[in-house]
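Hey,
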Amino acid sequence: MEPFQVHQGVAAPMLLNNIDTDAIIPSREMKRVSKKGLGEGLFAGWRYTLPGGREPNPDFVLNQSAYVGASILLGGANFGCGSSREHAAWALKEFGIRALIAPSFGSIFYSNCIRNGILPVVLTPAAIDQLSQAIEAGPQCAQLRIDLPRQRVATPNGSQYDFEIDAGHKRMLLEGLDGIALTLEHATDIDAFEAADRRSRPWIYG
């Protein structure tokens, strides 16, 4: 997993409350047996003019030239609510989203983002409105800078917004550790346990 240290990028506003995981990636887009290709289905219900089609909807923010290459999304409250599908985080990641900024997140979606290298930043609605105003004149030039070690979001005009994050989640992102990598940190203890268990219960291992 790619570590997250400091990221600067184009931010796109999607300031609706309760954007659920079915909006992030509709179930009809989850036909693949791998993570690859899911980015094409990101926000498919809004991004394309017809269900199942691929004609871009010019009114959707990520299709507008001002937000080409967006890697940060500004969202409303309860972003990522709904089903627990990890495909939502996979689709965001493949599309190129590195961070989400919202007043609150669906709890399972939040964890899925962390485990897939996407930083979910919690800021107040007032702060997010200020960030949106800071970028609206020229998103390509007025990029946001997110400093995870300092837990800070900054605008080009010098405004700064501090955020909180669990220490364990912060370490996972900083070091690029997913759940498997965290488990493998205890490989020596796991091997020792298995060896002892083989001695005490050999019949379990055939």
